[in-house]
Write a structure and sequence with these properties.
Order of helices and strands: HHHEEHHHH
Number of domains: 1
Largest sheet: 2 strands, antiparallel
Oligomer: single chain
Radius of gyration: 18 Å
Strand content: 5-15%
CATH architecture: Orthogonal Bundle
Number of strands: 2
């Protein structure tokens, strides 16, 4: 299973803003600079994160973004499931477009479904807080640029 860059960027944005004190705002520009990611990509990501209630946006001069919840209340698996378009590991996972002739008797589908379930279960076991246990070290790298 490979996450899209969109989901990867989403998790990185959450880690960036989560590395700061809750009262501090982050800008898309500073996140873009810290990670070397396109500002346009990050604008789309932050819009979606805001839509799902993970971040708050403050408009105007001196505005920016911050976490909308404590990091312990942001589940990594939930974020991944909301940010990914689909989890069609193979053609037969998408009933609408499946053309695989062996689907009715294929055992691979069950194995891959079990693997995907396990993958998502592991992600469900972690919160953003778990990714921020080294907050000071993250901050030292991210906020130096």
């Amino acid at each position: 299973m490979r996450l899209t860059m969109y989901t990867d960027f989403s998790l990185r944005v959450l880690m960036y803003v989560g590395s700061k004190e809750r009262s501090q705002l982050s800008t898309i520009q500073e996140i873009s600079t810290a990670y070397g990611i396109s500002k346009n990509h990050l604008m789309k990501v932050t819009y979606e994160l805001g839509k799902h209630g993970y971040i708050e946006t403050v408009r105007g001069r001196g505005g920016g973004i911050r976490l909308a919840h404590d990091p312990i209340n942001i589940n990594v698996g939930e974020v991944v499931k909301k940010m990914e378009d689909d989890f069609y590991l193979v053609e037969c996972f998408n009933c609408a477009s499946n053309r695989c002739v062996i689907t009715p008797v294929c055992k691979l589908r069950n194995v891959l479904h079990e693997a995907l379930t396990a993958y998502l279960s592991v992600l469900d076991a972690y919160t953003l807080q778990d990714l921020l246990v080294n907050k000071e070290e993250l901050g030292a790298i991210l906020f130096m640029k």
